[in-house]
Amino acid sequence: MSSQGLNIHAIRAIYRFELSRWFRTLTQSLLAPVISTSLYFVVFGSAIGSHMGAIHGVSYGAFIVPGLMMLAVLTESLSNASFGIYMPKWVGTIYELLSAPVSWFEAVAGYVGAAATKSVLLGLVILVTARIFVPFHILHPLWMAAFLVLTAVTFSLFGFLIGVWANDFQKLQIIPTLVITPLTFLGGSFYSISMLPPIWRKITLVNPVVYLISGFRWSFYGVADVSVGVSLGMTLGFMALCLCAIWWVFKTGYRLRT
Length: 258
Description:
This protein is mostly helical. The chain has one domain. It is built from 10 helices and no strands.
């Protein structure tokens, strides 16, 4: 950032361009995840949930709503942010960005801001869709919004790093498919980790996604597998780590100038 302040025009230009690309493919970007999540509600919430008891006093169908929202938000945040920065690299327009009077923070604010906005909108649409299938309540709506935005921004930053690291389209999918999606399924999306045997509960706590889902579920029902303060701290720590890594990428030009 320059001493004269942020280049708001540059941030707005990148942000609007990325959003316009998303709106051009709205059916694929929004409808497909909503349909997939709806199927989860039908299978797990209605079919399986009707044969399961309440978890921490919450019906199973309602219990999985925060987990399914996190699954969609994490996946879309990574996909949107990684694709957003990978395409300029692929077509060569990244050099125009690097040579423009735009700081690394302003470029990241535009790309990550757009990716996070898309993910938050998707999360809200899924929240409305979930209401069609299961009744639920939100005990702490402000904290719910805070965790939603914080998660979207954090994993958009992580997705930005993936887009910088990837040098072909296949690598864009390696980490989201082989790492993040399994971690999300094993992070308590469909169950409480308190249901696991003690040894597996300790192993599961190594999974960073556990803290995201636990904190987000607490904002709905006031129940959590780990302390809300720990969940918030882990998320903020991961965000800071991603920001430091992105700063280093722009400082060294790692896979941006080659």
